[in-house]
Design goal:
The complex is a heterodimer of chains A (213) and B (237). Helices cover 75% and strands 0% of the residues of chain A. By secondary structure, chain A is an all-alpha fold. In chain A, helix 5 packs antiparallel against helix 6 and helix 7 crosses helix 8. Chain B is mostly helical and 237 residues long. The longest helix of chain B has 30 residues. The model of chain B has no long low-confidence stretch (mean pLDDT 81). Classes of the chains: A mainly alpha (213), B mainly alpha (237). At the A-B interface, helix 2, helix 3, helix 4, helix 7 and helix 8 of A face helix 1, helix 4, helix 6 and helix 8 of B.
């Protein structure tokens, strides 16, 4: 995937639509929204599957599991959405976290998404290695975004008191050590690369022949 | 047709919902969290989100009953049981407020209201489309799962473990194809309605953050701040 494919005309040449001043940028934002919606739904479905199955240890490595299965969606988003796709994804995940009152995701995910998008833009969006590297970096930062406050704020009064009140939370705090955190990041990076390779194969096999990429 | 509390600005609704979830997470004592849970119930009842409330109560009763039976059987409640109940109390307000928003928030008015506030389109459009299409993709997923079951590939834990790559391909490809096609259709529809056109959009019903909305938001926030302060003052920290 070294050459940017020629973009077909999105809408028929219509004097009325052209005169209204519309642009293609909106279509990219809408596609970004739809693919993000798919990511959020599949992520929660995956979580429900391993939670119901009783694989509680996977809760700590949920991002790694997600990378294996959802890398394809992220790569398609990078290929099809020109306007900072990973930054938009970071806003969506950060917004969802904020809606739950969990603020730590946005401060990490947003800069990571922006950095990954700028790197991909600079180095060439249609180069497989560049896409993989950008996605793997972003996915690893997402894994860190969920876990960093419990690790770094472990000694804070709020976390200690909450742990006293809630045995489940106490278990989480006890498990949040540097080796576990680093293992989460490493697992996320490795699975992002593996999932990304698998995703590129799927894109080459199905989406390129269909003319969608 | 969605039932809604008449004439409350969508931004006020969103603020009440979000602040409830944030307060529940910030409070430490379970007594404060129960209070916030009661507030969240009140919000849902005011928004007439009765089905959601009924579903939540059913889940809570089942969880509580399970814990009670465990206590009877073993003589003490297990760590997992207590932990699950406390998690339900902690995240319950968030779930209930999402139910409230689902039942009462008018998505197009909300997006227009944010646009009038000055939120840029690159943030507004993807967020709006994301939340709008989540239920659609859940439906698409169930259709694809049923189609796979007809073809002899049931989506079960056994298949997930034994054939993960194949199952990922069978599930992801149709979902992604649908997503891309829906994206194209929606974009054409949006562009035909002048979504990307320059200039301020007009609305049929005026959008304004009135004095009533301000008083409601301030009162709600004040109540949550009081609960938080009580939480901290009575041993939360």
């Amino acid at each position: 995937m070294r050459r940017a494919p020629e973009e077909p005309a999105f809408i028929p040449k219509s004097r009325d639509i052209i005169d209204s001043g519309t642009s293609r940028g909106v279509s990219h934002l809408i596609l970004a929204g739809i693919l993000n919606s798919l990511i959020v739904v599949l992520s929660h479905l995956l979580y429900a599957v391993h939670a119901v199955a009783g694989f509680f240890v996977l809760s700590f490595f949920h991002q790694a599991l997600e990378n294996l299965f959802l890398a394809t969606v992220y790569l398609i988003m990078i290929l099809r959405v020109k306007a900072f796709p990973l930054t938009i994804n970071a806003i969506v995940w950060g917004g969802l976290g904020l809606a739950m009152g969990y603020w730590p995701v946005l401060p990490v995910a947003l800069p990571a998404g922006l950095a990954a998008d700028l790197f991909i833009r600079k180095a060439g969006r249609h180069r497989s290695g560049v896409m993989l590297a950008g996605y793997a970096f972003y996915a690893t930062c997402l894994a860190g975004a969920n876990g960093w406050p419990i690790l770094l704020l472990k000694q804070s009064a709020t976390v200690r008191q909450t742990a006293l009140m809630d045995p489940f939370f106490a278990g989480m705090v006890e498990t949040a050590t540097w080796p576990v955190f680093l293992a989460q990041l490493a697992a996320s990076l490795v699975t992002a690369l593996i999932g990304g390779r698998f995703g590129l194969r799927l894109i080459r096999t199905h989406f390129k022949p269909a003319g969608l990429i | 047709m969605k039932k809604r509390i008449p004439s409350i600005d969508e931004r006020a609704r969103l603020w009440m919902a979000l602040s409830t979830g944030i307060a529940a997470l910030a409070c430490i004592r379970w007594q404060s969290q129960i209070l916030i849970l009661v507030l969240a119930f009140g919000l849902c009842l005011a928004g007439r989100a009765l089905k959601g409330v009924a579903a939540f109560l059913t889940g809570a009763v089942l969880l509580g009953a399970g814990l009670f039976l465990q206590t009877l059987e073993t003589g003490n409640h297990t760590l997992t049981g207590t932990g699950l109940l406390l998690m339900a109390v902690k995240f319950g307000p968030f779930i209930l407020t999402m139910v409230y928003l689902y039942n009462t928030l008018d998505a197009s008015r909300f997006l227009r209201a944010l646009e009038h506030t000055g939120v840029p389109a690159p943030v507004l459009v993807p967020l709006g489309v994301t939340f709008r299409f989540m239920p659609s993709f859940v439906r698409e997923f169930t259709h694809i799962r049923d189609a796979l079951a007809f073809r002899g590939v049931p989506v079960t834990l056994r298949t997930v473990i034994s054939r993960p790559l194949a199952l990922t391909e069978y599930l992801l490809i149709p979902l992604l194809m649908r997503a891309l096609l829906i994206g194209e259709e929606l974009s054409r529809s949006a562009l035909a309605r002048g979504m990307g056109a320059p200039g301020k959009k007009t609305v049929f019903r005026p959008i304004a953050f009135t004095l009533k909305d301000t008083v409601l938001c301030l009162s709600w926030t004040g109540l949550l701040v009081l609960i938080f302060a009580w939480d901290r003052a009575t041993g939360g920290l």
